[in-house]
Design goal:
There is one protein chain. The chain has about 210 residues and is of the alpha/beta class. It contains six helices and seven strands. Strand 3 and strand 4 form a beta hairpin.
């Protein structure tokens, strides 16, 4: 993509802000694909390891503390949670992966649900794959990236909790992440960074989403 002028970048970021300033409501929790809403809206999804900060990021994006439920207990999000943004976009909070405390049969059911959703959802434009910047991409993340590659679903890495590490450490994590995504066919080339706690770089993520709606 050609580099944008300063004015074009301002317009791009403003479109993201305008989109996320609109009303967003919880729609339903999906435990079975038969419960999925109609696919007449553009759809994005947030995925990541348990406790990577998915719910916190969703709440920060919309400026609503309790829109998505947060918990210190890994695996709290056990279903696909759907949110409707101004009848323009579905935002989907996917079940966290990589937790160890949940029963194996439940974990397997969640994994099957996610896999079938990714493969069969035509309206899904992008998965935003959240990675804790303190730890970088782990083996379990690589497995999810491989699954997304096979499903031919475009995904974009979003580094979370960047306020918890130094600028030098962040540079290293970004460099390592950029090197790793070159191995994955469905990975978006632009790695994003965020902090839900400090509200850092959220506008860039909003702008990415707005472009998908446009």
């Amino acid at each position: 993509m050609a580099e944008l002028s300063e004015e074009e970048e301002k317009i791009r970021l403003q479109k993201g802000k305008d989109l996320f300033n609109q009303k967003c409501d919880f729609v339903l929790s999906v435990a079975n694909l038969k419960q999925l809403p109609s696919d007449d809206l553009v759809e994005i999804a947030f995925a990541g390891r348990s406790n990577v900060g998915k719910s916190s990021l969703i709440n920060a994006l919309f400026g609503q503390r309790k829109l998505a439920k947060t918990s210190s207990t890994p695996g709290r999000t056990q279903q696909l949670n759907y949110f409707n943004l101004a009848n323009k976009l579905y935002v989907v909070d996917l079940p966290g992966y990589g937790f160890a405390k949940a029963p194996k049969d439940i974990v397997k059911n969640w994994q099957n649900l996610i896999n079938m959703y990714l493969v069969g959802r035509a309206s899904l434009r992008r998965v935003f794959l959240l990675i804790d910047s303190r730890h970088g991409i782990k083996k379990i993340d690589e497995e999810i990236m491989d699954m997304l590659d096979k499903a031919a679903v475009t995904y974009q890495i979003v580094l979370t909790k960047i306020d918890k590490i130094s600028a030098k450490e962040l540079e290293k994590v970004i460099a390592n992440t950029n090197a790793q995504i070159t191995k994955h066919t469905a990975a978006h080339v632009n790695v994003l960074k965020t902090s839900s706690e400090k509200n850092l770089f959220l506008d860039e993520l909003k702008a990415e989403v707005a472009e998908l709606v446009d």
